[in-house]
Q: What sequence folds into this?
């Protein structure tokens, strides 16, 4: 059996695959966080709860409406985005002129409420969500077995992340969003409805988190704690990549997933903390993050 540093190659590539899958979720969730913070200056601590609600929306659509995975990929993000837009219009919009701490405290409280409601209704044991028939099975690559669904998650995450980055950095809409962040009165003077643009941006960031929840539902059990178990790591990813840097969040998310996977192979005891060790080192060397800009 082929080995690398004494580790069977099947084990090594298996852990790299798991790390890549985790990295895909880190990238998608940190993308939404970076989008909301970078363009709206909102520290959205409810992002993990929105991810959890996306998974539950998919499960509820299947259980009560008979709408399967492919329909849930469209409907669940729209439903959760609607909730997010309502929160932005009724609560967050009142805090834009205040310190970031207020939005952090509000979204943290909303996350606790959402988690408590779902725990009360469904418990914490987890609810199964089946992989769609068209994505079952796998490919034998010789050195490892690649499940079709996990390959789909990585590809879908890459397409979503790169598509969002291109839309923000390379299109007229993205230019309007960045301009509205820098100088809202000027953009408003050109006839752009800035509050509506802000609401739409927040809704999209929420939809991205919910979409990640739908993608995660067949891999992890659907439970109220799935967001809170992930959100601290995702915040660390955003800090390492650079607060507000969309490209930084994407690249850092995938890379840290791979680093975490390798750590589980060579130093399992450090797998739970390796992301935070990397964060500490990066902040010592480059306080603005790898892709962040120093003021």
A:
């Amino acid at each position: 059996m082929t080995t690398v540093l004494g580790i069977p190659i099947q084990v090594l590539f298996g852990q790299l695959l798991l790390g890549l899958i985790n990295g895909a979720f880190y990238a998608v969730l940190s993308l939404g966080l970076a989008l909301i913070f970078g363009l709206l200056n909102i520290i959205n601590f409810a992002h993990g709860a929105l991810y959890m609600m996306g998974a539950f929306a998919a499960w509820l659509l299947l259980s009560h409406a008979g709408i399967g995975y492919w329909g849930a990929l469209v409907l669940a993000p729209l439903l959760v985005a609607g909730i997010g837009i309502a929160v932005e219009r009724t609560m967050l919009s009142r805090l834009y002129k205040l310190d970031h701490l207020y939005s952090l405290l509000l979204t943290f409280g909303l996350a606790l409420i959402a988690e408590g409601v779902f725990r009360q209704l469904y418990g914490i044991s987890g609810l199964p969500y089946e992989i769609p028939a068209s994505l079952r099975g796998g490919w034998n690559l010789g050195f490892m077995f690649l499940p079709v669904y996990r390959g789909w998650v990585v590809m879908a995450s890459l397409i979503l992340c790169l598509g969002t980055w291109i839309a923000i950095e390379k299109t007229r809409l993205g230019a309007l969003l960045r301009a509205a962040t820098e100088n809202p009165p000027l953009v408003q003077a050109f006839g752009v409805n800035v509050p509506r643009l802000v609401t739409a941006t927040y809704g999209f960031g929420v939809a991205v988190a919910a979409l990640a929840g739908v993608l995660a539902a067949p891999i992890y059990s659907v439970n109220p704690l799935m967001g809170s178990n992930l959100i601290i790591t995702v915040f660390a990813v955003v800090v390492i990549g650079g607060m507000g840097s969309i490209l930084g969040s994407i690249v850092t998310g995938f890379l840290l997933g791979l680093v975490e996977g390798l750590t589980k192979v060579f130093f399992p005891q450090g797998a739970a903390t390796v992301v935070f060790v990397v964060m500490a080192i990066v902040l010592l060397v480059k306080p603005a993050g790898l892709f962040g800009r120093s003021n």
